[in-house]
Amino acid sequence: KALAGEYLGLTGTRLDGAEMLVCGLATHFVPSERLSLLEEALCKVDSSDPAIISAVINEYSKQPYMKEKSAYHRLNVIDRCFSRRTVEEIISALERVALNKKDDWISKTIQSLKRASPTSLKISLRSDFRYVL
């Protein structure tokens, strides 16, 4: 599944490395403590062949841990609420979900949208964000 572009665009949520990987925005996840080793290995490669480069990166990559509070775990809510046509409908849909489900993430998302400039939100939504992959 993918995080809705509308959600990312309207809330300004930043993705971490794990989220970028599962959304298809990244091809590999290399822990920061291994980056210098990867850089050294890439400098030693005498090829521009993408398959060889990818194989080197694979040696230093690992499967990241998806945080419990990640928006990725709330894709059903994101898809259901952020697929609305207007900002008001999005907020209303989130508020309906919040009535039935106690979730700090939903409350914080609603607060974030209500604090933002209504005009900026409407312009961003009209920018016609697409799903991220």
TrEMBL record:
It is an enzyme of class 3 (hydrolase). Its EC number is 3.1.2.4. It catalyses: 3-hydroxy-2-methylpropanoyl-CoA + H2O = 3-hydroxy-2-methylpropanoate + CoA + H(+). Keywords: Hydrolase. GO terms for molecular function: 3-hydroxyisobutyryl-CoA hydrolase activity. One of its GO terms (biological process) is L-valine catabolic process. Belongs to the enoyl-CoA hydratase/isomerase family. Hydrolyzes 3-hydroxyisobutyryl-CoA (HIBYL-CoA), a saline catabolite. Has high activity toward isobutyryl-CoA. Could be an isobutyryl-CoA dehydrogenase that functions in valine catabolism. PANTHER family: 3-HYDROXYISOBUTYRYL-COA HYDROLASE, MITOCHONDRIAL, 3-HYDROXYISOBUTYRYL-COA HYDROLASE-RELATED. This is 3-hydroxyisobutyryl-CoA hydrolase. It comes from Castanea mollissima (Chinese chestnut).
